[in-house]
Input
Amino acid sequence: MPRPASVDATLELLAGENYLAGRPLATAVFLALSLGKPLLLEGEAGVGKTELAKVLARALDAELIRLQCYEGLDIASAAYEWNVARQMLEIRLAEAGHEADRAKLLAGLYSRDMLIERPLLRALTQPRPPLLLIDELDRADEPFEAFLLEILAEWQLSVPELGTIRAAHPPIAIITSNRTREIHDALKRRCLYAWVDYPDAPRELEIVRRKAPGAGERLATQVVAFVQRARHLDLFKAPGVAETIDWTNALVALDTMSLDPQSVADTLGVLLKYQDDIAQFEGGAARAILDELHAEGILEPRP
Ligand SMILES: Nc1ncnc2c1ncn2[C@@H]1O[C@H](COP(=O)(O)OP(=O)(O)O)[C@@H](O)[C@H]1O
Ligand SMILES: [Mg+2]
Output
Protein backbone atom coordinates (compact mmCIF):
# COMPACT_ATOMS: atom_id res chain seq x y z
CA MET A 1 0.00 0.00 0.00
CA PRO A 2 1.58 3.33 -1.00
CA ARG A 3 1.74 6.05 1.61
CA PRO A 4 -0.99 8.68 1.42
CA ALA A 5 -0.23 11.67 -0.80
CA SER A 6 -2.05 14.32 1.23
CA VAL A 7 -3.73 15.06 4.55
CA ASP A 8 -7.11 14.32 2.97
CA ALA A 9 -5.85 10.99 1.70
CA THR A 10 -4.58 10.24 5.21
CA LEU A 11 -7.99 11.02 6.70
CA GLU A 12 -9.59 8.70 4.15
CA LEU A 13 -7.05 5.96 4.71
CA LEU A 14 -7.77 5.96 8.44
CA ALA A 15 -11.54 6.26 7.97
CA GLY A 16 -11.34 3.24 5.68
CA GLU A 17 -10.29 1.32 8.80
CA ASN A 18 -13.02 2.98 10.87
CA TYR A 19 -10.61 5.33 12.60
CA LEU A 20 -11.93 8.87 12.62
CA ALA A 21 -9.17 11.38 13.15
CA GLY A 22 -9.36 15.14 13.39
CA ARG A 23 -7.46 17.15 10.83
CA PRO A 24 -4.55 18.09 13.11
CA LEU A 25 -3.92 14.44 13.95
CA ALA A 26 -4.18 13.36 10.32
CA THR A 27 -1.73 16.12 9.42
CA ALA A 28 0.74 14.87 12.01
CA VAL A 29 0.42 11.33 10.66
CA PHE A 30 0.85 12.51 7.08
CA LEU A 31 3.96 14.49 7.99
CA ALA A 32 5.46 11.66 10.03
CA LEU A 33 5.10 9.40 6.97
CA SER A 34 6.37 12.01 4.54
CA LEU A 35 9.34 13.14 6.59
CA GLY A 36 10.19 9.71 7.98
CA LYS A 37 10.08 11.01 11.55
CA PRO A 38 8.72 9.28 14.64
CA LEU A 39 5.37 10.53 15.87
CA LEU A 40 4.84 11.06 19.58
CA LEU A 41 1.19 10.87 20.59
CA GLU A 42 0.15 12.09 24.02
CA GLY A 43 -3.29 12.11 25.55
CA GLU A 44 -5.55 10.64 28.20
CA ALA A 45 -6.12 6.90 28.27
CA GLY A 46 -8.77 5.80 25.82
CA VAL A 47 -8.52 8.55 23.21
CA GLY A 48 -7.30 6.25 20.44
CA LYS A 49 -3.49 6.45 20.50
CA THR A 50 -2.75 2.74 20.37
CA GLU A 51 -5.60 2.18 17.95
CA LEU A 52 -4.15 4.75 15.55
CA ALA A 53 -0.91 2.79 15.29
CA LYS A 54 -2.72 -0.50 14.76
CA VAL A 55 -5.01 0.98 12.14
CA LEU A 56 -2.18 2.68 10.31
CA ALA A 57 -0.24 -0.57 10.13
CA ARG A 58 -3.26 -2.33 8.71
CA ALA A 59 -4.02 0.45 6.22
CA LEU A 60 -0.43 0.52 4.97
CA ASP A 61 -0.13 -3.25 5.07
CA ALA A 62 2.92 -2.88 7.30
CA GLU A 63 3.89 -5.39 9.94
CA LEU A 64 3.02 -4.07 13.41
CA ILE A 65 5.88 -4.47 15.86
CA ARG A 66 4.75 -3.46 19.31
CA LEU A 67 6.89 -2.68 22.30
CA GLN A 68 4.69 -2.35 25.36
CA CYS A 69 6.61 -0.33 27.95
CA TYR A 70 6.56 -1.01 31.66
CA GLU A 71 8.59 -0.17 34.73
CA GLY A 72 11.86 -2.05 34.60
CA LEU A 73 11.80 -2.59 30.83
CA ASP A 74 15.41 -3.21 29.85
CA ILE A 75 17.42 -3.49 26.67
CA ALA A 76 17.37 -7.28 26.80
CA SER A 77 13.57 -7.28 26.53
CA ALA A 78 13.26 -4.24 24.28
CA ALA A 79 16.11 -4.57 21.78
CA TYR A 80 18.26 -7.69 21.81
CA GLU A 81 19.76 -10.36 23.95
CA TRP A 82 22.72 -12.66 23.40
CA ASN A 83 21.68 -16.26 22.97
CA VAL A 84 23.63 -17.52 25.96
CA ALA A 85 22.49 -21.12 25.60
CA ARG A 86 23.84 -21.28 22.06
CA GLN A 87 27.03 -19.53 23.06
CA MET A 88 27.61 -22.12 25.77
CA LEU A 89 27.03 -24.89 23.28
CA GLU A 90 29.55 -23.38 20.85
CA ILE A 91 32.10 -23.07 23.63
CA ARG A 92 31.64 -26.72 24.52
CA LEU A 93 32.05 -27.70 20.87
CA ALA A 94 35.17 -25.58 20.67
CA GLU A 95 36.64 -27.27 23.70
CA ALA A 96 36.07 -30.66 22.12
CA GLY A 97 37.26 -29.70 18.63
CA HIS A 98 40.60 -29.22 16.96
CA GLU A 99 42.78 -26.23 17.64
CA ALA A 100 42.12 -24.78 14.17
CA ASP A 101 38.33 -24.89 14.47
CA ARG A 102 38.47 -23.45 17.91
CA ALA A 103 39.42 -19.91 16.92
CA LYS A 104 36.69 -19.85 14.29
CA LEU A 105 34.02 -21.08 16.66
CA LEU A 106 34.99 -18.62 19.34
CA ALA A 107 35.06 -15.75 16.85
CA GLY A 108 31.44 -16.55 16.03
CA LEU A 109 30.31 -16.20 19.63
CA TYR A 110 29.33 -12.57 19.21
CA SER A 111 28.05 -12.66 15.67
CA ARG A 112 24.65 -11.58 14.34
CA ASP A 113 23.08 -15.01 14.46
CA MET A 114 23.88 -15.24 18.17
CA LEU A 115 21.56 -12.28 18.79
CA ILE A 116 17.99 -12.82 19.81
CA GLU A 117 16.00 -9.99 18.28
CA ARG A 118 13.52 -8.15 20.48
CA PRO A 119 11.04 -5.59 19.06
CA LEU A 120 13.41 -2.65 18.59
CA LEU A 121 16.08 -4.62 16.77
CA ARG A 122 13.47 -6.50 14.78
CA ALA A 123 12.03 -3.18 13.63
CA LEU A 124 15.42 -2.29 12.14
CA THR A 125 16.02 -5.54 10.30
CA GLN A 126 12.84 -6.13 8.28
CA PRO A 127 12.88 -6.33 4.48
CA ARG A 128 9.97 -3.86 4.35
CA PRO A 129 9.40 -0.89 6.68
CA PRO A 130 7.30 -2.14 9.59
CA LEU A 131 5.24 0.02 11.92
CA LEU A 132 7.02 0.22 15.25
CA LEU A 133 4.68 1.05 18.12
CA ILE A 134 6.43 2.04 21.34
CA ASP A 135 3.38 2.04 23.56
CA GLU A 136 3.05 3.92 26.86
CA LEU A 137 6.63 5.12 27.01
CA ASP A 138 5.83 7.07 30.17
CA ARG A 139 5.70 3.75 32.01
CA ALA A 140 9.32 2.90 31.20
CA ASP A 141 12.13 4.24 33.37
CA GLU A 142 13.69 7.47 32.20
CA PRO A 143 17.13 6.01 31.26
CA PHE A 144 15.35 3.87 28.70
CA GLU A 145 14.51 7.02 26.76
CA ALA A 146 18.20 7.81 26.39
CA PHE A 147 18.67 4.41 24.84
CA LEU A 148 15.90 5.11 22.35
CA LEU A 149 17.50 8.31 21.10
CA GLU A 150 19.99 6.63 18.79
CA ILE A 151 17.34 4.41 17.29
CA LEU A 152 14.85 7.19 16.68
CA ALA A 153 17.38 9.71 15.40
CA GLU A 154 19.58 7.48 13.23
CA TRP A 155 17.52 4.30 12.81
CA GLN A 156 20.47 2.39 14.10
CA LEU A 157 21.47 0.45 17.17
CA SER A 158 24.95 -0.01 18.60
CA VAL A 159 25.71 -3.43 20.01
CA PRO A 160 28.98 -3.05 21.92
CA GLU A 161 30.32 -6.53 21.12
CA LEU A 162 29.31 -6.40 17.48
CA GLY A 163 29.09 -2.88 16.10
CA THR A 164 26.33 -0.75 14.67
CA ILE A 165 23.25 -2.24 13.07
CA ARG A 166 21.65 0.19 10.68
CA ALA A 167 18.16 -0.15 9.26
CA ALA A 168 18.01 -0.54 5.50
CA HIS A 169 14.28 0.11 5.67
CA PRO A 170 13.54 2.38 8.63
CA PRO A 171 10.27 1.71 10.41
CA ILE A 172 7.33 4.04 10.70
CA ALA A 173 7.55 4.82 14.41
CA ILE A 174 4.69 5.78 16.70
CA ILE A 175 5.33 6.46 20.37
CA THR A 176 2.49 6.91 22.82
CA SER A 177 2.35 8.36 26.30
CA ASN A 178 -0.52 8.68 28.74
CA ARG A 179 1.49 11.48 30.29
CA THR A 180 1.91 10.08 33.77
CA ARG A 181 5.26 11.86 33.51
CA GLU A 182 6.90 14.15 30.96
CA ILE A 183 8.88 12.66 28.11
CA HIS A 184 12.36 14.19 27.86
CA ASP A 185 12.98 17.16 25.58
CA ALA A 186 15.79 15.32 23.83
CA LEU A 187 13.41 12.63 22.70
CA LYS A 188 10.64 15.09 21.88
CA ARG A 189 13.00 17.00 19.63
CA ARG A 190 13.42 13.94 17.45
CA CYS A 191 9.71 13.41 17.04
CA LEU A 192 6.69 15.08 15.56
CA TYR A 193 4.15 15.66 18.26
CA ALA A 194 0.39 15.41 18.44
CA TRP A 195 -1.89 15.83 21.42
CA VAL A 196 -4.81 13.44 21.00
CA ASP A 197 -8.01 14.70 22.56
CA TYR A 198 -11.35 13.04 23.11
CA PRO A 199 -13.41 13.29 19.91
CA ASP A 200 -16.10 15.96 19.81
CA ALA A 201 -19.72 14.82 19.84
CA PRO A 202 -20.26 14.54 16.07
CA ARG A 203 -17.08 12.52 15.61
CA GLU A 204 -17.77 10.31 18.59
CA LEU A 205 -21.27 9.66 17.25
CA GLU A 206 -19.78 8.58 13.94
CA ILE A 207 -17.35 6.28 15.80
CA VAL A 208 -20.27 4.72 17.69
CA ARG A 209 -22.22 4.25 14.45
CA ARG A 210 -19.31 2.34 13.02
CA LYS A 211 -18.26 0.38 16.09
CA ALA A 212 -21.64 -0.29 17.69
CA PRO A 213 -23.80 -0.67 14.60
CA GLY A 214 -26.52 -2.47 16.59
CA ALA A 215 -27.53 0.76 18.30
CA GLY A 216 -30.29 2.93 16.92
CA GLU A 217 -29.53 6.53 16.06
CA ARG A 218 -31.51 7.79 19.02
CA LEU A 219 -29.67 5.71 21.62
CA ALA A 220 -26.28 6.42 20.03
CA THR A 221 -26.93 10.17 20.15
CA GLN A 222 -28.01 10.00 23.78
CA VAL A 223 -25.04 7.90 24.84
CA VAL A 224 -22.57 10.24 23.18
CA ALA A 225 -24.23 13.32 24.66
CA PHE A 226 -24.15 11.69 28.10
CA VAL A 227 -20.50 10.65 27.88
CA GLN A 228 -19.40 14.03 26.55
CA ARG A 229 -20.95 15.67 29.60
CA ALA A 230 -19.58 13.05 31.96
CA ARG A 231 -16.06 13.95 30.82
CA HIS A 232 -16.51 17.47 32.14
CA LEU A 233 -16.96 16.20 35.68
CA ASP A 234 -14.10 15.80 38.09
CA LEU A 235 -13.59 12.06 37.76
CA PHE A 236 -10.77 9.81 38.78
CA LYS A 237 -10.89 8.28 35.30
CA ALA A 238 -13.01 9.88 32.62
CA PRO A 239 -14.62 7.43 30.20
CA GLY A 240 -12.62 6.89 27.02
CA VAL A 241 -13.95 6.12 23.56
CA ALA A 242 -13.73 2.39 24.30
CA GLU A 243 -16.13 2.92 27.22
CA THR A 244 -18.55 4.79 24.98
CA ILE A 245 -18.56 1.88 22.55
CA ASP A 246 -18.82 -0.73 25.31
CA TRP A 247 -21.62 1.14 27.03
CA THR A 248 -23.58 1.42 23.80
CA ASN A 249 -23.19 -2.29 23.15
CA ALA A 250 -24.19 -3.10 26.73
CA LEU A 251 -27.34 -1.01 26.45
CA VAL A 252 -28.20 -2.68 23.14
CA ALA A 253 -27.68 -6.09 24.72
CA LEU A 254 -30.16 -5.07 27.43
CA ASP A 255 -32.70 -3.98 24.78
CA THR A 256 -32.47 -0.36 25.89
CA MET A 257 -33.99 1.94 23.28
CA SER A 258 -33.46 5.20 25.14
CA LEU A 259 -31.53 6.28 28.26
CA ASP A 260 -33.43 6.53 31.51
CA PRO A 261 -32.30 6.70 35.16
CA GLN A 262 -32.72 2.95 35.65
CA SER A 263 -30.79 1.82 32.57
CA VAL A 264 -27.97 4.24 33.40
CA ALA A 265 -27.82 3.09 37.03
CA ASP A 266 -27.77 -0.56 36.00
CA THR A 267 -24.83 -0.16 33.60
CA LEU A 268 -22.58 2.43 35.28
CA GLY A 269 -19.86 -0.19 35.71
CA VAL A 270 -19.42 -0.37 31.94
CA LEU A 271 -18.81 3.36 31.74
CA LEU A 272 -16.85 4.01 34.93
CA LYS A 273 -14.14 1.84 36.42
CA TYR A 274 -13.62 3.38 39.84
CA GLN A 275 -15.99 3.07 42.75
CA ASP A 276 -15.61 6.76 43.71
CA ASP A 277 -16.69 7.78 40.22
CA ILE A 278 -19.63 5.38 40.30
CA ALA A 279 -20.64 6.75 43.71
CA GLN A 280 -20.57 10.30 42.34
CA PHE A 281 -22.91 9.26 39.53
CA GLU A 282 -25.22 7.36 41.84
CA GLY A 283 -25.21 10.34 44.18
CA GLY A 284 -26.80 12.66 41.64
CA ALA A 285 -24.36 13.27 38.78
CA ALA A 286 -26.12 10.83 36.46
CA ARG A 287 -29.48 12.41 37.24
CA ALA A 288 -28.11 15.89 36.60
CA ILE A 289 -26.78 14.89 33.19
CA LEU A 290 -30.07 13.23 32.24
CA ASP A 291 -31.88 16.41 33.29
CA GLU A 292 -29.62 18.42 31.01
CA LEU A 293 -30.32 16.07 28.14
CA HIS A 294 -34.05 16.46 28.75
CA ALA A 295 -33.73 20.23 28.83
CA GLU A 296 -31.87 20.20 25.54
CA GLY A 297 -34.36 17.90 23.87
CA ILE A 298 -31.82 15.10 23.39
CA LEU A 299 -33.99 12.96 25.64
CA GLU A 300 -37.74 12.97 25.19
CA PRO A 301 -39.66 15.07 27.71
CA ARG A 302 -40.60 13.07 30.78
CA PRO A 303 -44.14 11.68 30.74
N1 LIG B 1 -10.71 8.20 16.51
C1 LIG B 1 -11.19 6.96 16.70
N2 LIG B 1 -11.86 6.32 15.73
C2 LIG B 1 -12.35 5.08 15.95
N3 LIG B 1 -12.24 4.40 17.10
C3 LIG B 1 -11.58 5.00 18.11
C4 LIG B 1 -11.03 6.29 17.96
N4 LIG B 1 -10.44 6.62 19.12
C5 LIG B 1 -10.63 5.59 19.95
N5 LIG B 1 -11.31 4.60 19.36
C6 LIG B 1 -11.74 3.34 19.99
O1 LIG B 1 -11.40 3.42 21.36
C7 LIG B 1 -10.65 2.27 21.75
C8 LIG B 1 -9.62 2.67 22.77
O2 LIG B 1 -8.59 3.39 22.17
P1 LIG B 1 -7.05 3.12 22.50
O3 LIG B 1 -6.30 3.28 21.25
O4 LIG B 1 -6.88 1.86 23.25
O5 LIG B 1 -6.77 4.35 23.48
P2 LIG B 1 -5.37 4.82 24.09
O6 LIG B 1 -4.29 4.00 23.48
O7 LIG B 1 -5.29 6.28 23.75
O8 LIG B 1 -5.52 4.61 25.56
C9 LIG B 1 -10.08 1.70 20.48
O9 LIG B 1 -9.99 0.32 20.55
C10 LIG B 1 -11.09 2.11 19.43
O10 LIG B 1 -12.10 1.13 19.29
MG1 LIG C 1 -3.05 2.71 24.53
Remarks:
- Residues 49-50, 135, 176 surround magnesium ion (ligand 2) (CB under 6 Å).
- Residues 212 and 272 are 18 Å apart (CA to CA).
- The chain has a mean pLDDT of 95.
